[in-house]
Structures are given as C-alpha cells and as structure tokens.
Design brief:
Elements: H1 3-29, H2 39-42, H3 54-65, H4 69-77, H5 82-109, H6 116-124, H7 126-157, H8 162-181, H9 187-206, E1 214-215, E2 218-219, H10 220-237, H11 244-269, H12 289-296, H13 304-312, H14 323-348, H15 353-359, H16 367-383, H17 387-423, H18 430-447, H19 462-483, H20 489-515, H21 519-544
Antiparallel strand pairs: 1-2
Length: about 550
C-alpha cells in the first residue's frame, strides 16, 4: 500500500475532527464565552499569568506536549502492524485527545488556572485530590527523568544536532524581547526565527560537536543530563514570556516545517508501506496488543500529561476563553499529525520488509532512532536531501520538543510541590519548589541508573500511568459537566475505555514485574493502582450526586 493514501486519510480525518467535532464540543458542551475574563487577566502577574496571543500560546502548548513520546510510542507500536497504530492515533486524536486537552484547559481557566489535581479537591473531595497529586507527581518524575536521558542519548549519537539545539535557546530569547519588549508584530520574528533555526541546522551539520568520553569526571551522557537539568531549572524560574513562550512558539513553527518536509517527501517519493498491516510474526517476547497498544501509544492518541500542561501553564496564559478550542483541540491535532508521520517513517522508511524486520527484532525496538533513520531515508528519496542532513533535521526536531517538555514539566512539578505544601499548610516559594523538583529528578537520574539514565528505570510504567492520568482527568471534566447539567457522554465514553485499558495494563505489568522480581516497579504499580481505583470511586460518587446549581459557572467566578 502507498504511504500517500495513509497520509491523506489520516490528515483529512483529523482536519474534519477539528472543523466539525471540536466546534460542536465548544458550542454545545463547554459553551465557550467570548466575554469571560480569564485568569490571565484577573490574576495577571507577568510571570505565570500572562495574556497571550492564541498562536503563540498554541505553540507553547503544542511543543510542551509534543516531546519524544508521540514519536517513541508509535515507533514501537508498529511492531503489531501499521493498521492498529494508525487507527488508534487517528480516532484517539479526534475523540479522545482533543476533548481531553480542550476540556482540561477550559475547566482550569474557569477556576483561576488551577491544575486538575487541585480542581479535583473541589469536585471529588480532599482524599481524591491527595491521591490525584501522587499520580501527577509520578508522571512528571517519569517525564523529566526519562526525557533528560533521551535527549542526552541523541546529543551523543547525533553530534550535528548540538549547535542547533542550544542555538535555539538564543533565538527564543531574542524573539521574546522583540515581541514583548519592543512590540514587534508576530510575522517578522516568526519568519526570521525559523530561517535562523534551519541555518543553525546547516551549521551544525558542518560542525558536529562531540564531547570527550569524560567531562569533569562524568561521562558525556551524564554531563549532558546535568546541563539539561540546570537549563530546565533556570527556564522554569523565568517569566513565561522571556523564554518558555517564544521557545515553544518557534519550535512549533519549526515542527510544522519539518512535518511539511516529511509529508512532501511522501507525496513526491510515493514510498510503499513495507511493514505488515497486521503483524502475524511477532517476536516471542511481544505482549498482547490489548491492552498494551493503548498505553504504548499515549501521546499522539491521548495523554494525561497534556492535561497537566493545559491546566498547569496554558490556562494561565489564555487570553480569551474562545481561544481554548484552537489551543487545546488543535494542539492535540498537531500531535496526532506528528504521530502519523512517525508511523509512516517507521513503516515506509525501509527498503524492504526484511530491513524492517531486522530493526523490529523484539518488543520495544524502534523508537526515536527508527523515526530518525526512516525519516531521513524518506527525505533523501522524496526531496533529494542528503541522508545525514535529513537525519539531523529530525533529530533536532525530536530533541527540541523533548527539551520544551522538560521546561514545562519542571515548572509543573514545582507547581505540584507548591500545591502539596499549600495542602499541608506550608508555603513553598518558587525557588525552593524548583530546587526540590530538580533534586528529586536528579536523585532518580543518578541514583537509579548508570550514566545519569536512572529516569529510564521507571519508564516501563510511564505509558500506563500516563493513560490512567488521562482517564482520571476526564473523570474530573465529566463530574464538572454533570454538576452543570450538561451532556457528559462525550467525555464519559473515552473515560470508561481509558480506565479499563489502563487498569488492565497495570495488572498485566504487575505480573511481569513480580516474575522479574523488580520490586521497585512492582511497588509503584501497586501504589498507582490503589490511587487510581480510589480516585475513580470518589469520581463515581460525585457523578451519582447529579447536578449542582452552584456549579453552573455562568459568571467569571470559580466553583464554590
């Protein structure tokens, strides 16, 4: 089958979902009000609460959620065949991710920009909120620890990416000053920023930067991880307009250019999908497609981390409530497009089925490297780009998005620590909260693995925990809709499906960890399962209470 057909069907379906389904949700379910005063205005502080142009905010939201996961998940899941991966990405984007991201943003903006964890306290009670925060903290710990390891590996394996990756920070700082300090219109910084980014990619391909084997007594990978956490800590302390917003925005534009190149390469190169539609010759260690498909592909179909970003940083920058549809739902569509590209790269970027099978020799194979290599081949065959340059473009794209996810993730982890302190009656200031967040991540990175890669030690639980968090976030949105007397079916159906698949996967993994005598992951699995079941029970109790007239939210006041 031609990859062109897969590309057209996938892009068309997601476009129709945005044009029609998201409009229905915005008007009939969330009932967006253009006159509502968002927290960015009512609580404006110039640091976290800043009214933001919807295109810039979309760039922040999209690139914060589009880290390595929407590439890694599909690149692994195609081992079951391209049809299951394609169907879950497309249908998940339209009916799951869009309404989840959009809903978390809307609910938070209606409640002073509170995170879904804190919002749960108002809707399902203090016990549910405490357990919700435990799940959130663990997801953020996994994301920050693992993405640091992924980025460091790519910086070592692709030295041509070093100059453009770190140069992008300077580009973002300049763009932030031009837009916010000198009031330059968005067009010229956007064009200039993208041009400079791609010039940096060309420069990096000519001047690769490889660290020596040992730097200050650390391996190259460990040194990069240390530097990444230092950068993320500083970035999370700066006002969002200085670095976070412009970096995310310009990275979002760079991603669309990269996606455009990939899709043009597919169109002009007309590659064939060499991977099987359904793989009947799975490696011996491959788990069952149900439920593992639905947790292996998390970001790109639906992801609980998106709800954290939407309610943690994005809601505090929402200028108008009506912008939530574009920022939230279309942000999910953008990530779906990235996952679709990853599927095509990992199924049509190989010359023959045998070449594909030599990469996918066991479950868990593929990942970012398969995306980079396969995408580089597509760019070379379709557009005539040198294979090394194509690989550099895609590696930089993956690193930049993983990096922006770390920026936002560490800021979110600081918010969670401060919220937990608030519940305990302890005021945790910004600097202390950041120090604790970095300290915990560093302890995991260097205390649980070689070369600072300890974040990968708990990564096997990420997909399941992430999807579980998405289900719990949908439960909060569903409770809110029921309390307002609004139709809840559109969130309830995805909620039930996700919770069923996630809890099933937790039980499957529990058996795997027990047989492997991996007591760390087994213990975490049990804690997460108990927390999830408890929050689910609290949510069901809240749903059964039915409508609460005090929760209509017809004004700009939060829930009582």
């Amino acid at each position: 089958m031609s990859a062109i057909a897969l590309m057209i069907v996938g892009l068309a379906a997601m476009s129709l979902g945005y044009l029609f389904y998201s409009k229905f949700i915005a008007e009939k379910i969330y009932r967006l009000d253009p006159n509502y005063r968002t927290p960015a205005h009512t609580m404006r502080d110039g640091v976290d609460y800043v009214p933001t142009n919807k295109f810039v905010l979309w760039g922040h939201h999209f690139t914060s959620v589009a880290g390595a996961a929407p590439i890694v998940g599909p690149a692994i899941a195609v081992i079951w065949g391209w049809v299951p991966a394609f169907m879950w990405v497309v249908l998940g984007t339209i009916f799951f991710a869009g309404i989840h991201d959009f809903g978390a943003l809307w609910a938070s903006a209606r409640n002073r920009g509170q995170s879904v964890g804190m919002l749960s306290g108002r809707l399902i009670g203090s016990r549910g909120r405490s357990l919700f925060l435990v799940v959130i903290f663990l997801v953020l710990l996994m994301v920050n620890g693992a993405f640091a390891a992924v980025i460091s590996n790519l910086l070592v394996s692709t030295p041509t990416s070093v100059i453009p990756v770190w140069g992008a920070i300077v580009v973002a700082l300049v763009i932030g000053q031009l837009i916010y300090r000198y009031n330059v219109k968005l067009l010229w910084p956007s064009l200039g920023g993208v041009i400079v980014l791609y010039l940096l990619i060309l420069l990096g391909s000519q001047f690769p930067v490889s660290l020596p084997d040992t730097v200050l007594g650390l391996s190259a990978k460990s040194f990069w991880i240390l530097l990444l956490f230092a950068y993320a800590a500083i970035a999370s302390l700066l006002p969002v307009w200085v670095l976070l917003q412009p970096r995310d925005y310009i990275n979002g534009l760079q991603l669309f250019v990269g996606l455009g190149l990939l899709y043009m390469a597919v169109l002009f190169g007309a590659p064939e999908l060499v991977a099987p539609a359904y793989n009947n010759e799975l490696p011996a260690d491959s788990p069952s497609i149900v439920p593992l498909l639905f947790v292996t592909i998390a970001c790109g179909a639906i992801s609980g981390f998106h709800g954290l970003v939407a309610s943690g940083t994005t809601s505090k920058q929402l200028d108008k409530e009506t912008d939530a549809r574009f920022v939230g739902y279309f942000g999910a569509v953008g990530e779906g497009m990235l996952s679709l590209a990853a599927i095509i790269c990992c199924t049509a970027g190989f010359a023959t089925l045998l070449d594909w099978q030599q990469v996918y020799t066991a479950f868990g194979q593929g990942g970012v490297n398969a995306f980079v290599q396969g995408g580089g081949t597509l760019l070379a065959n379709g557009l005539g780009l040198p294979a090394d340059l194509g690989a550099t473009i895609l590696a930089v794209m993956a690193i930049l998005f993983a990096g922006t996810t770390m920026d936002t993730g560490l800021r979110l982890q600081r918010f969670v620590i401060q919220e937990a302190g608030e519940l305990a009656g302890i005021k945790v200031n910004t600097l202390v909260g950041t120090f604790i967040a970095v300290g915990v991540c560093m302890a995991l990175a260097f205390g649980a693995g070689a070369e600072g890669s300890g974040g990968m030690a708990i990564w096997p639980l990420f997909g399941t925990t992430n999807q579980l968090l998405a289900g719990l976030t949908l439960s909060i949105i569903t409770v809110l809709l029921i309390k307002q007397g609004r139709p809840a079916m559109y969130t309830l159906v995805p909620l039930v499906f996700l919770l069923a698949m996630s809890i099933y996967a937790l039980l499957v993994q529990m058996g795997q960890f027990y047989r492997a005598e991996n007591w760390l992951l087994l213990g975490m699995d049990v804690v997460i399962l108990i927390a999830a079941l408890w929050v689910t029970l609290e949510s069901v109790i809240a749903m059964r209470k039915g409508r609460d007239p005090a929760a209509d939210m017809t004004t700009d006041e939060p829930l009582p």
